[in-house]
Amino acid sequence: MVNLIGEISEDISSQLHMGIMKAARRVVLDGIIGDIIAEFVTEKKLKRHKLESADCTPENNMVMFNCFTSTIVESLRLCASY
Question: Does the predicted model carry a pTM greater than 0.70?
């Protein structure tokens, strides 16, 4: 009987720990993505302001997009390592 209670207790504890860790990862990921998006918008506005006097080419837009996507991928890797 004591052994059964111990097994049930350990199983519940393990499930609770996994749930807490999953929620914590989600909060961290949401925070990282929110910060990245906010930073990207700020940088894009600044660059747009600077580029208003210069020619805006599709190549410039692609460079900014590649920078943004690589930042997100790196943040996802960091979050997944937790």
Answer: no
